[in-house]
Specification:
Blueprint lengths: L1 H7 L43 H22 L3 E2 L3 E2 L3 E2 L9 H12 L2 H16 L9 H31 L5 E2 L6 H10 L3 E3 L6 E3 L1 H13 L11 H33 L7 H27 L1
Parallel strand pairs: 3-4
Antiparallel strand pairs: 1-2, 5-6
Helix pairs in contact: 3-5, 4-5, 5-7, 6-8, 7-8
Length: 298
């Protein structure tokens, strides 16, 4: 219901003014998201002409920064096992190119953990007597495992790679990491239904994620038994993928907090501490300005 409501809202609700930072204008006042490295809204494109050589250098620089981010993200794993490739801990993250998005999605889809997850899901469905058209025994388990893996892989490649490359949308979860727990919770949920555009950096409906899940659900009709396929399977698998994605973003938002507290390891490498320190400084500045205005009035 939250996703339907957010998608139904006008895209203008997710827009921003130049130099104000990327902010979700949903029903609640969400904290700022990581500031992009290249803020197009703050540049006067008409006041300064850039030569083709300078443009090439700028594009290359952003591409290189994207490569650095991908290399860093491809090393991220929860407890050293579960991949966390599609999450950015950076406050100065840059937009990825279409090829970089596809490559990151493919790396996630073919990771050994993705195949292991398919085996676990297949075991659950076989134990629950689901999808009887697959049969039973080792052969039925193999079919369920393949179907479970393809469900996840299709959603990853389409929703995190192909559609974001076509629609120029950010496929990664740009983790917040600071602010109140309530704001962080709502932010992590909302990002499944809204995301920033690569060029404008304005928040807009996350067509890539939602449509990607539905398309992946439709593709599942090709390899599910005829008795289990159809429109119902498309919607069911699409909703399951969306629900799993929502759980994943909430977990990714708070995982570093859990890791620091119980494992004494900081996956963000100190970035959360820096963000919290900036929050304290900004709060002090606001309080001082408030006191000054009050004194001026007196």
């Amino acid at each position: 219901m939250t996703g339907i409501a957010l998608l139904a809202l006008s895209p203008n609700l997710f827009s921003q003014e130049p130099n104000t930072g990327k902010r979700l204008a949903v029903a609640i006042d969400l904290p700022e998201t990581p500031q992009p490295q290249a803020e197009f809204g703050s540049v006067d494109l008409f006041a300064q002409q850039t030569s083709p050589a300078q443009q090439t250098g700028t594009e290359k620089s952003q591409h290189e920064k994207g490569e650095e981010e991908i290399k860093e993200e491809e090393k991220q794993r929860v407890v050293g096992v579960v991949p966390s490739f599609n999450v950015s801990y950076r406050a100065d993250t840059v937009s990825l190119s279409g090829f970089q998005k596809l490559r990151l999605a493919f790396h996630s889809a073919v990771d050994p953990a993705a195949f292991a997850a398919g085996l676990v899901v297949a075991g659950y469905h076989q134990a629950m007597d689901d999808d009887t058209g697959f049969g039973w025994g080792l052969k039925g388990y193999a079919k369920r495992s393949s179907a479970a893996y393809l469900d996840a892989a299709d959603g990853t490649m389409i929703g995190n790679g192909i559609l974001p490359a076509i629609l120029h949308q950010e496929p990664r979860y740009l983790r917040l990491g600071h602010g109140t727990y309530t704001h962080r919770l709502f932010y992590s949920i909302a990002t499944n239904f809204v995301c920033p555009h690569d060029n404008t950096h304005k928040w807009e409906p996350n067509y890539s994620n939602v449509l990607g899940n539905i398309v992946a659900g439709a593709i599942s009709n090709l390899y599910y038994p005829s008795g289990n396929s159809g429109f119902g399977l498309t919607i069911t698998n699409g909703l399951i993928d969306t629900g799993e994605g929502t759980f994943g973003t909430v977990f990714e938002e708070f995982w570093p907090d859990l890791s620091r507290r119980y494992l004494h390891k900081d996956p963000t490498q100190g970035r959360d501490a820096e963000a919290r320190a900036l929050d304290v400084e900004e709060k002090q500045v606001r309080e001082e300005q408030k006191k000054k205005r009050k004194q001026d009035k007196n």
